[in-house]
Design brief:
With 399 residues, this protein is mainly alpha-helical. The protein has 17 helices and five strands. The structure holds acetyl coenzyme *A.
């Protein structure tokens, strides 16, 4: 007899969108990933144009408010972020009290959740406004606060691990320069600030990826913005997503010298193992973020004495793409393959790489949930039940 599961009867043919492949969450104006051609746009602007002609603050404004800011809109935005001058003492204490060898992404997630405990107004917004449309403006202010404070917490976590005191932002510096300053205690030179700014711009938003979807799901229950961002950080952490940058660098470092790179790739293929930093659900062409980052990685590695590392990476790229093309597979480096090299050459400890990603992506996370809020409907997919039916409980002493 066929098993009856709601409207699904077995045996039958079901198209499972494994990993929700092909599922559409909503209609958005925030950003578009053209996976066939390898283009990425934020609100109609290409990432290449934004990297060349804007900065991270302008891009965050663009994503959150919908337009590139005028000078006065940017000044207002900056002053809102600068108002978040310091982390609450309780959050600073929490960061200091966490084991210094825990992963900084876990520490960041804890810090963002703790920030929510300190912001009673921010916590109440979505849950107590009966019409979600009305709460967007208030929620946007909370979002801007979280953007600044997530950066502050990320820098504090990095600083404490190096044995330094937690620094407050310097009111003279922009978002990116402040992030670097709060991590190191030194005001960065323009070249360093600019490279970091490009990295943050490139990672600010990227369609309905796992962490953005996580943020959407959490916020769709009208949970507060802190819970939303803390959950998204958890989702970003894994090596299949934002944690790939640290895993990719570890792999390249493990190769040793460039002459061993081909052999390393061959052994990965022989063992049927994935190469971290390659492949993407949407891109069937080269990830445009990787194109920009590869140029910076090459220059920085050469300047900072990591020639071998860069050459190993470039050989891995060539070898993997050649083998994939021969197998008819469109698998190319993604953003995480070269971002790790850039961060390494800039001197960041490897576990900090996904944290930098999280700071950048906070703009995209908050922009996407704010866009969805006026038409909010809770996310609630279903699974096909294929388990046992008509079971009877046998008392424990008879099992
Ligand atoms: N190395 C080797 N083969 C790969 C790779 C890879 N990195 N990525 C995908 N493939 C192959 C798979 O083996 C599979 O082949 P098959 O059809 O013959 O079985 C096919 O390509 C499809 O792979 P899936 O894992 O099903 O693709 P999915 O869309 O589910 O996963 C993901 C995308 C997670 C990015 C995957 O490509 C991967 O694991 N890459 C390595 C981890 C990584 O770099 N993650 C960062 C992504 S970018 C970001 O999130 C910021």
């Amino acid at each position: 007899m066929a098993k009856f599961m709601g409207r699904v009867e077995f045996p039958c043919t079901i198209e499972l969108g494994k990993g929700l492949e092909g599922a559409i969450t909503n209609i958005t104006k925030i950003g578009y990933v053209d996976g066939q051609e390898g283009h990425l746009v934020y609100r109609g602007y290409s990432i290449e144009d934004l990297c060349e002609n804007s900065n991270y603050e302008e891009v965050a404004y663009l994503l959150i408010y919908g337009n590139l800011p005028t000078a006065s809109q940017l000044a207002d935005f900056e002053s809102k972020m600068r108002a978040e001058r310091t982390l609450p003492d309780e959050v600073k204490e929490l960061i200091k009290s966490l084991p210094h060898d825990c992963h900084p992404m876990n520490a960041l997630q804890a810090a963002v959740a703790a920030m929510g405990c300190m912001d009673h107004d921010g916590l109440e917004v979505t849950r107590h406004v009966s019409n979600p449309k009305e709460s967007v403006d208030v929620e946007r202010d909370v979002a801007v606060r979280i953007l600044a404070q997530t950066r502050n917490a990320a820098a504090a976590i990095a600083r404490v691990r190096k044995g330094g005191d937690i620094l407050d932002p310097n009111p003279e510096l922009d978002f990116t320069a402040n992030y670097l300053y709060m991590m190191s205690g030194e005001i960065p030179d323009e070249t360093r600030r600019r490279v970091m700014d490009v990295c943050l711009i490139l990672q600010a938003d990227h369609g309905m990826n796992a962490s953005t979807f996580t943020a959407m799901v959490v916020h769709s229950s009208l949970a507060d913005m802190y819970s939303t961002i803390a959950a998204a950080i958890g989702s970003l952490r894994g090596p299949l997503h934002g944690g790939a940058n640290e895993a990719a660098l570890a792999d390249i470092q493990s190769i040793g010298t460039p002459d061993k790179a081909k052999e390393w790739v061959a052994s990965r293929f022989a063992q049927n193992e994935k190469i971290i930093g390659f492949g993407h659900r949407v891109y069937k062409a080269l990830d445009p973020r990787a194109v920009v980052l590869k140029g910076h990685a090459e220059r920085l590695c050469r300047e900072h004495g990591f020639n071998d590392l860069y050459e190993s990476a470039a050989t891995v790229e060539k070898e993997v793409t050649t083998r994939m093309e021969a197998a008819g597979k469109k698998i190319y480096p993604n953003v995480d393959f070269y971002s790790g090299l850039v961060y390494h050459a800039l001197g960041f400890p490897t576990p900090q790489f996904p944290v930098i990603f999280a700071v950048a992506r906070t703009a995209g996370w908050v922009a996407r949930v704010l866009e969805y809020l006026p038409e909010n409907r809770i996310f609630r997919p279903r699974a096909v039940y294929d388990g046992a039916v008509d079971q009877k409980v046998v008392p424990i002493n008879q099992r």
